[in-house]
Write a structure and sequence with these properties.
It is a single chain. By secondary structure, this protein is mostly beta strands. 8% of the residues lie in helices and 43% in strands. It has five helices and 43 strands. It has a 38-stranded mixed β-sheet that branches. Strands 1-2-3-5-4 form a five-stranded mixed β-sheet. Strand 1 (38-40), helix 3 (42-45) and strand 2 form a beta-alpha-beta unit.
Length: 564
């Protein structure tokens, strides 16, 4: 078959195919026929005993391509005939002519755009046999969780955030799928830890440029445990994985990361606007960092880098909608330029179940944008653990139109926590900045605008507070800083605003002790009563005069700078 033919045109065609030329299947089929090469289906081409070395063109839609007849039986690892197909003569088979790198799910039988066909097997087969799986600018429907667990693999789509077929690559969990309400759409790695150490994990998986869509409402897990909620992309027990430009739509958890090592997540989107069904706590989290896996590392994820990721949208039925949540040992987490828009809670860090200080260090939140927060924009709950080491740098925070609870709340633990720079705008009723039962916090250059309670401190100490507070339009009955039970701390704020917008500068309760106060940059011109006597109070009295000054001194407090 095909012996003695002039293959000059065929050779040029196969070279173009390997180079990624955009000719259609009909073009290649015509080229093959013109060159005298056989063309047809697998059944036709594999009939009889084609000559070893002969070349044929497979014309089946989606599977198109040139194949060479080679000796030996068909490899057992390709049951879907993506790379090879059998001949009637068992001592030979046809093998695809390709670059041995870039594969397509269509070769393995995927039917893009067909909502009644399950493409999961084809995508998984392509991923297993092709170093690079190239997804088309089409919709792939699946009826079960897509599992990607082969090391040293890449999968690229053709555009993310697609709203309709043909605008980009969408992998859609079909609305009639058995697991539409409670299964994950994609699993990268494995649900269960495969061995005692990370050497047994899946290595080097790189995914980019596609959208994961759940075409139905989620059902909250009855346990109320976020780790078990239906997820768009679940990555667990993987080493050196990257996820770039991936969107996760209508999932309880947009992205889950647990048991990962050196993982990078860039420019990904989570969005959910539907309510869940079937009862249960309808939790909604864009990015969930699970610190509970114990696999020999200090935390649940070793070196997790998350950059320029976005969470948008929520529903009134959602419980505690949150942009990013980290539970457990959050060590070695680097969150940069994260953004949430119109989500009640922006970033929530909870050291649940942590017992060692080394599990709550090396957390970095940098240049995050948390807009329209009706709850807590940033919450860090240390769970009673001492020895934390955390950096919060230059956040931009804005309250929802109706206000929020807390701009930044740090509570229940201690260590070394730094908040440097950043802006908090709008009315967070419980505090634009709240420090509660915590030690070792330094705040420098944090700008607090138009808050009804700019700074609040409760039962906290070893603090160095240098916030910048401005109320130009909002009037409040509170002082710029109110503290109850603060100890061994230094306070040096900048306070300004329009006339009558603040009740005073710093208000200490009678239990505050061993504190240093510098009111030099507190401007009395923004007080309801323009007098320096309201720059610093203790126990409801002017701390610089008479009984107030005596009470202030008895608690071993001191004043530095200019207080008048």
């Amino acid at each position: 078959m095909g012996r003695g033919l002039d293959r000059r045109g065929l050779i040029a065609g196969t070279a173009s195919l390997a180079a990624g030329a955009s000719a259609s299947g009909q073009d290649f089929q015509a080229m093959a026929v013109a060159s005298g090469v056989g063309a047809g289906t697998r059944q036709i081409l594999g009939a009889g005993a084609p000559a070893i070395g002969s070349i044929a063109y497979l014309s089946e839609q989606g599977r198109e391509g040139f194949f060479r007849c080679v000796s030996g039986t068909k490899p057992a690892g390709d049951p879907l005939d993506g790379i090879s197909f059998a001949c009637a003569a068992n001592d030979r088979h046809f093998s695809r002519i390709w670059d041995h790198s870039n594969g397509h799910p269509e070769w393995f039988g995927a039917r893009p755009g067909d909502g009644n066909f399950d493409c999961a097997d084809a995508i998984e087969a392509c991923f297993a046999l092709s170093p690079v799986t190239q997804l088309g600018q089409v919709d792939y429907f699946v009826r079960r969780t897509l599992v990607l667990n082969r090391s040293w693999r890449t999968m690229n789509g053709s555009g993310t955030q697609a709203a309709d077929n043909g605008q980009g690559t969408r992998i859609i969990l079909q609305g009639q799928a058995p697991g539409i309400h409670d299964h994950d759409i994609m699993l990268v790695g494995s649900v269960r830890q495969p061995g005692s150490g990370s050497e047994s994990f899946v290595h080097e998986i790189h995914l980019a440029n596609f959208t994961l869509v759940r075409d139905g409402a989620v059902t909250p897990h009855p346990s109320g445990d976020e780790r078990r909620y239906p997820t768009g992309l679940r990555a667990s027990f993987v080493v050196r994985a990257t996820f770039r430009d991936i969107a996760s739509l209508e999932n309880s958890i947009g992205f889950y990361f647990g048991g990962t090592v050196y993982t990078k997540v860039d420019d990904c989107l989570a969005q959910r606007t539907r309510a869940g069904s079937g009862g249960g706590r309808d939790l909604a989290v864009g990015f969930y960092l699970d610190g509970s896996p114990d696999y020999g590392m200090a935390g649940g994820n070793a070196s997790l880098y998350l950059s320029r990721c976005l969470v948008v949208g929520q529903h009134a039925a959602h419980v505690q909608p949150t942009g990013l949540r980290a539970d457990g040992a959050f060590v070695d987490s680097f969150i940069d330029h994260f953004e949430s828009a119109q989500i009640d809670n922006g970033i929530q860090i909870r050291a649940r179940g942590v017992t060692r200080p080394t599990q709550v260090v090396d957390l970095h939140l940098r240049n995050c944008v948390l807009d329209g927060c009706a709850g807590n924009a940033i919450e860090i709950d240390l769970g009673g653990v001492q020895g934390a080491s955390i950096e919060i740098a230059d956040p931009y925070i804005y309250a929802a139109a109706a206000g929020g609870s807390h701009g930044i709340i740090l509570h229940d633990g201690g260590g070394l926590v730094t908040v440097s720079g950043g802006q908090v705008h709008g009315d967070f009723r419980e505090g634009s900045l709240l420090l509660q039962r915590i030690r070792g916090v330094r705040v420098q250059g944090l700008k607090l605008h138009e808050g009804s309670r700019p700074v609040a401190v409760q039962a906290s100490g070893a603090l160095q507070l240098e916030p910048q507070i401005s109320n130009m339009t909002r009037q409040t009955a509170n002082f710029a800083i109110t503290a109850a039970g603060m100890y061994r701390s230094a306070v040096r704020p900048i306070v300004l605003g329009s006339l009558g917008k603040l009740a005073g500068g710093v208000f200490l309760d009678a239990e505050c002790n061993y504190c240093s106060m510098d009111g030099t940059a507190v401007d009395p011109g923004c007080f309801g009563e323009v007098t320096s006597a309201r720059k610093l109070w203790i126990g409801g009295m002017d701390a610089t005069r008479g009984a107030g000054a005596a009470a202030f001194a008895r608690r071993n407090n001191s004043i530095i700078g200019v207080i008048r």
